[in-house]
């Protein structure tokens, strides 16, 4: 019954969203690649030229994105995280890339990325220093925004380290204004609520007006416990964070770690399914030069990406926790519903949940067309309210299905048509 309480509370609290940041960007969740989880602050290009943070890394990822179908699947932004700059600003007070690791400079790199039909993201920090100790933007917001615009950068991830928390709102807002005033559309990815939560409940109306997406919770790492902690945090704060999400502004549960080392294939499927349900940015952090075909197939699964990018732009939420299953549901356009059933029992074998137990199943009166997307594609056909379909889910895996309501009148018509043909 807990689930029904969730659902009802959310339905009453959903208001026609606060205004989103008006820069025309992120009308659906951002898709791309971001270096941090996989490559972190590896700056030793002498010892590890393949994997160090250098222009070469982003150029190679861009090449792979074109060659291996990533761009075609929708992944568009190639994003730099921390550790790209020099420790000193230049004589005019501008940030500059580390000259040894970025000999061509960022503008040249942006040109290369654009020539591949992709976009370039960069990283800076609202405070005195970046998290890894490079120069921060505090006191330099206009200069830095203009520098990024001059370089033709397309996205800014703006971190929140080394900042007086009482000034977070001002800092993030001032940078948003500075970006706008450059006249270049730059997607603005914030961490304002993440750094504010320890002190006060963030104002999500203000955040949505300021940012295109915003991190709420800890960095993801390459482990199932990290994915679970993000899902648990999201479910327990969904009344606050789900309503403000929509076209132009999204909650960001952090990077996809699919294709790395720490998640089993079932767990990778769970991350992909739940990130789509949460209308999360799909920013992979992996090595596209070395990725197994199964992980690649999952990340490029068109049916899951279609859920992620659904034009209605509503974030899904957890509707029921029952028998160690968690059901998450996302309303889609055309009155369809995406449903993820996560098996949280990490012992034994596959377990089944009757589809009738899903709270959103109530839209299936008189019937629904049921399509299973994960763990494998299956057309489960047109099902009545009393359907006996059972979704089988592996431990720490997820079954992902879509429900398409079908009216009886439509069906009578179809029936008549068939009879006429016969
Ligand atoms: C700047 O903001 C105005 C008003 O919100 C908006 O109309 C305009 O498109 C924005 N420009 C950019 C480059 O984001
Ligand atoms: C934000 O801008 C306002 C107006 O220019 C200024 O008074 C304030 O100090 C700025 N805050 C920060 C943190 O930069
Ligand atoms: C939250 O921000 C909005 C928009 O900036 C503002 O109108 C509102 O008063 C703020 N709410 C609170 C509780 O501070
Ligand atoms: C049900 O969905 C499947 C998969 O999208 C589709 O091929 C089939 O035509 C649909 N059936 C009906 C009756 O709409």
UniProtKB/TrEMBL annotation:
Signal peptide: 1-20
CDD domains given in the database record: GH27
EC class: hydrolase
GO biological process: glycoside catabolic process; glycosphingolipid catabolic process; oligosaccharide metabolic process
Transmembrane spans: none
The protein's role, per its UniProt record: Catalyzes the hydrolysis of glycosphingolipids and participates in their degradation in the lysosome.
Protein name: Alpha-galactosidase
Protein's organism: Pleuronectes platessa
């Amino acid at each position: 019954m807990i689930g029904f309480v969730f659902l009802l509370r959310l339905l009453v609290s959903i208001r026609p969203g606060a205004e989103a940041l008006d820069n025309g960007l992120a009308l659906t969740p951002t898709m791309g690649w971001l270096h941090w989880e996989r490559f972190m602050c590896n700056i030793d290009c002498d010892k590890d030229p393949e994997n160090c943070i250098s222009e070469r890394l982003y150029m190679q990822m861009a090449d792979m994105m074109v060659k291996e179908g990533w761009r075609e699947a929708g992944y568009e932004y190639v994003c730099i995280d921390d550790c790209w700059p020099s420790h000193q600003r230049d004589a005019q007070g501008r940030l500059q890339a580390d000259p040894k690791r970025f000999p061509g400079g960022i503008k040249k790199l942006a040109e290369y990325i654009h020539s591949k039909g992709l976009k370039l993201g960069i990283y800076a920090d609202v405070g005195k220093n970046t998290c890894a100790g490079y120069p921060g933007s505090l006191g330099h917001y206009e200069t830095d925004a203009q520098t990024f615009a001059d370089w033709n950068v397309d996205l800014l991830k703006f971190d929140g380290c080394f900042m007086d928390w009482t000034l977070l709102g001002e800092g993030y807002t001032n940078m948003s204004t500075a970006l706008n005033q450059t006249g270049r559309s730059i997607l603005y990815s914030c961490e304002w609520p993440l750094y504010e939560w320890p002190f006060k409940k963030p104002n999500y109306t203000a955040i949505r007006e300021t940012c295109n997406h915003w991190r709420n919770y800890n960095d993801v790492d390459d482990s199932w416990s990290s994915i679970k902690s993000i899902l648990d945090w999201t479910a327990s704060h969904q009344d606050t964070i789900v309503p403000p999400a929509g076209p132009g502004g999204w909650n960001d549960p952090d990077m996809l770690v699919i294709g790395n080392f720490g998640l089993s294939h079932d767990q990778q499927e769970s991350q992909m399914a739940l990130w789509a349900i949460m209308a999360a940015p799909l920013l992979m952090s992996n090595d596209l030069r070395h990725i197994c075909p199964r992980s690649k197939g999952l990340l490029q699964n068109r049916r899951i990406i279609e859920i992620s990018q659904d034009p209605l732009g509503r974030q899904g939420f957890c509707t029921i926790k029952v028998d160690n299953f968690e059901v998450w549901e996302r309303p889609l356009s055309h009155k369809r519903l995406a449903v993820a059933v996560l098996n949280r029992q990490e012992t034994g074998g596959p377990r089944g949940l009757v589809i009738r137990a899903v709270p959103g199943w109530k839209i299936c009166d008189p019937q629904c067309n049921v399509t299973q997307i994960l763990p494998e594609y299956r057309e489960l056909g047109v099902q009545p309210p009393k359907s006996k379909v059972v979704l089988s889910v592996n431990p720490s895996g997820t079954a992902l299905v879509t429900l398409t309501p079908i009216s009886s009148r439509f069906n009578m018509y179809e029936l008549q048509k068939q009879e006429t043909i016969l």
